[in-house]
Amino acid sequence: MLLSRVAERVYWQARYLERVENTARLLNVFSTLLMDLPKGTKLGWHSLVEITGTDKAFAERYKQESERNVMRFLLAERNGYSILDNLAMTRENARTTREIMPTEAFEMINDLYYLAREKADAAVARGPRHEFLDQVISDCQQITGLLGGCMSRDEAYSFIRLGRSLERADMTTRIVDVGTGSLLESLPNVPGEPQNQAPFEGILWMNILRSLSAYQMYRQHVRERISGEDVVNFLLKDEQFPRATAHNLTTMNKVLKKLPRSSKVKWQVDRTRRLLGDGDIEKLLNKGLLKYIDELQKSLAATHAKIANTWFLH
Amino acid sequence: MRVNWKSYNPGKFYDELISSPGYARKPARRLASYLRSLTHEELLQKKTAAELAIKTMGISFTVYSDAGNIDREWPMDIIPRLIAASEWDHTSKGLEQRLRALNCFIHDLYNDQKILKDKVVPEELILNSGNFRKQCVGIKPKFDVWAHICGTDLIKGEDGQFFVLEDNLRVPSGVSYMLENRRVTKRVFPELFENNYDIRPVTEYPNQLFDTLAALSPRNVKYPEVVVLTPGIYNSAYFEHSFLAQRMGAQLVEGGDLVVEDDKVFMRTIDGLSQVDVIYRRIDDLFLDPSVFNKDSVLGVKGLFNAWVKGNVALANAPGAGVADDKIIYTYVPQIIKYYLDEDPIIPNVPSYLCTDKAQRDHVLKNLDKLVVKPANESGGYGMLIGPQASRKEREEFARKIKANPRNYMAQPLISLSTVPILGERSVEPRHVDLRPFILQSDKTHVTAGGLTRVAMVKGSYVVNSSQGGGSKDTWIIGDE
After folding, report:
1. Same structural domain for residues B104 and B82?
2. H/E element holding B19?
3. Which residues in A lie closer than 8 A to residue B243 (C-beta atoms)?
4. Residue A190: what pLDDT?
């Protein structure tokens, strides 16, 4: 028996925790991507803000889209979007559901929150940033692992999986969106070859794969040289890779079979799957990818709305 | 540097660890010699370890302040407080006796009112009480028990005997901290638990609480649905509500999770509505049901009271149980025990003066500088006057209040509370303590092994409430050898 309020909170706890991990990965990869690009390249730090969908809030606070401002905004500021605040919300949701999760899970979330509170400010600077982000990522994985290893496959766990999968599916579409959009455009031209961005494009796609821990798996399963089309196909449509959008939709479908009154949500997930399947990435890369991803994101947002309508308190 | 126990001097107070400087009391000898084997630095390291454990385990309480509500780590001193098992067995009999009598009293007040007719307790005292709920008249809860969970505050005076300071029959809190203090102490002093001491475990409490509650179920089902009703995350005891729900495997619900249909209580779940049998409510009477009590309450559930009246759901504690934890009623408890049980009280009350009685009131007004004056209906140590420590102006103000509303005040001599050592930055120092054991009653009765020891962390202070800077200690009931 699961209370609607509790279902809502564990769902959000999982989403926020996943968001923390994803944001930490992104910041990490961006910071290393910069090192691979020629000196003087103006990398769009602002892309990070776009990926997380927080452009408006950022613009209200900062005029300059500098590395420092973006880092402060996404790491340490108490603005509702930073890693620190997402952790605070993870903790708050965990604190109000601690009676149903393994005790150690709350203790670890609590510890991670305190760690971030202590170190996030300093990690705005490049020096300590990497170590901090690595710690956050590995702690998030530890928590996810603990829940997977110690929690009964009950309804509460189903809502954790639902939240996590939806967040992953959504985040991957955002990363593809920005990678194929503003990031690609901000790559430097090679002198003498005005239209040819190839040497850096490879680096970009590699880093995009890395931001989802997908590089190695891509290499093992795609076995082609890295091309934009293959990367986008892999990240959106692969069924095996756990951060690919398609895989997460499949997971959601499995979870939904175990939950009561799930037909409306299932309908929406199926719709999203069809939308995803219908897209011809090769063609879309030439024209229309932006709109396609936009549709996907809208459909994912509608999935959340249906979840909330079906099971949560209104 | 080793701790110098010879310089530990509680002065005129009864100290529970030592009988005179350098000499430990019998049950404390092993603890004292163990502590003596550690240097002060080692003790401070253990203190740091305990603080870290508390932070990691998320043991917290909420403090209300102008700056908003702050979730604070629970303050605990690592040196345990010891009570001999033989002394405790006697005391727990006294606590059971007291709760049995109080439950007879409450049931009588809402039904036959024999004790009023026999003029053992003055009728007007009850009828004027802000805690007498006339809506409860005529109701007969299961086992005739109204207060299922009671926290009784005990203190030791100059001779080391326990007195009852007050009974908390509404929503007493603190038991989770008793359990967590033990968990922390086990982490910090594992050596002492291994082979040295026969320390009574406290871990049974959540099971006993669940059994006590489950026995109240109106439906005769194998697994009654027991829930803990909390006002929510901003309540100072939220940690405890969540903790107890978790340990009992019960649902933790807020008012918004419950709904009443056909005088039955249901919770909103992802499957739809599901019936609730027993509610361990941690919300005050007046906020339980906006259709009967406080109309503005957003914490409660509309129709809940009626569902209880119809016998479709059990509430613990029952509405109206607070009528017996008024500080004026407290002064009558010895007579109440005699009246219902025909027994003498096993644990004495602190001698008290009633301001409703003219002679006693005059005595109080004349001796305000020696007495502690308490309002009938406050908790958490608020609104009281500690005469010997108060300014003249404060005493005069209280004299006015007493004259204006004598029913609202009682007074007691300032008891010199016993002391136990706490670990200070440079040395061990004596501090005053009280004890809150928890007593359960439905089909059976249970008393905790010890309880929550609260410590006034400030030198010389008697204020032990955590909301006002008090600390706590693990409490060990030590087997006699």
Report:
1. no
2. strand B18-20
3. 99
4. 58
The tokens for B103 are: 């439950």
Tens of pLDDT, residue by residue over B116-148, are: 999 999 998 898 888 899 999 999 999 999 999
Query: B426 lies in a domain?
Result: no
Segment A185-200, tens digit of pLDDT: 767 665 555 445 556 7
Domain that residue B405 falls in? 353-413
pLDDT more than 70, % of chain B:
97
The answer to whether B389 touches B459, Cβ cutoff 8 Å, is no
B55 touches chain A (CB under 8 A): yes
Radius of gyration, CA atoms only, chain B? 23
Q: Report the pLDDT value the prediction gives residue B326, as an integer from 0 to 100.
A: 85
Tell whether B70 and B136 lie within a shared domain.
no
Residues whose CB is less than 8 angstroms from the CB of residue B246 and which lie 6 or more positions away in sequence, other chains included: A98, A99, A100, A103, B252
Residue type, B6: K
- For residue A246, give Cα distances in angstroms to A249, A289, B184: 5, 17, 46
Q: Do A3 and B246 touch (CB under 8 A)?
A: no
Residues of A in contact with B270 (CB under 8 A): 2-4, 7, 155, 259-261, 311
Residue environment code for B280-305, b if the CB has 16+ CB neighbours within 10 A, otherwise e: bbbbbbbbbbbebbeeebebbbebbb
DSSP state, residue B11: T
B116 Cβ contact list (under 8 Å, min separation 6): B109, B122, B123, B126
Quote the pTM value.
0.82
User: pLDDT grade, residue B206 (50/70/90)?
Assistant: very high
Q: Is B58 near chain A, with CB under 8 Å?
A: yes
Best mutation site among B56, B57, B230, B270 for testing chain A: the one with the most A CBs within 10 Å?
Answer: B270
Write down the pLDDT at residue B66: 53
Could B268 and A313 be called an inter-chain contact, meaning their C-beta atoms sit closer than 8 Å?
Answer: yes
* Contacting residues of B for A313, CB less than 8 Å apart: 256-257, 268
Which residue from B242, B256, B271 is facing A5, i.e. has the nearest CB? B256
Please provide the average confidence, as pLDDT, over all residues in chain B.
Answer: 91
Residues B143 and B279 in one domain: yes
| Residue B195 and residue B276 in one domain | no
Chain B residues in contact with A103 by the CB 8 A cut-off are 57, 246
Same domain, B126 and B192: no
* Closest of B217, B289, B257, B263 to residue A1, by C-alpha: B257
Best residue of A1, A3, A160 to probe chain B, by most B CBs closer than 10 Å? A3
Quick one: angle between helices A263-278 and A228-237, nearest 10? 170
B58 → closest Cβ in A1, A5, A110: A110
What is the pLDDT, as a whole number, of residue A192?
53
Q: How far does the CA of residue A17 sit from the closest CA of chain B (Å)?
A: 18
Q: Which residues from A are below 8 Å from B57, CB to CB?
A: 103, 107
**Which residues in B lie closer than 8 A to residue A260 (C-beta atoms)?**
270-272
Cβ of B459 under 8 Å from any chain A Cβ? no
B401-446 confidence digits (pLDDT tens): 999 988 888 999 988 899 999 998 888 999 999 999 999 999 999 9
| One domain for residues B129 and B38 | no
How much is the pLDDT for A194? 46
Rg of the Cα atoms in chain A: 19
Closest chain B residue to A103, measured at CA: B57
Angle at B95 between CA B93 and CA B101, to 5 degrees: 100
B231 confidence band (pLDDT: 50, 70, 90):
very high
Q: Do B392 and B317 share a structural domain?
A: no
Average pLDDT of the residues in B298-321:
95
Report, as ranges of residue numbers, the positions in chain A whose pLDDT lies below 50: 194-195
* B210 vs A contacts (CB less than 8 Å): none
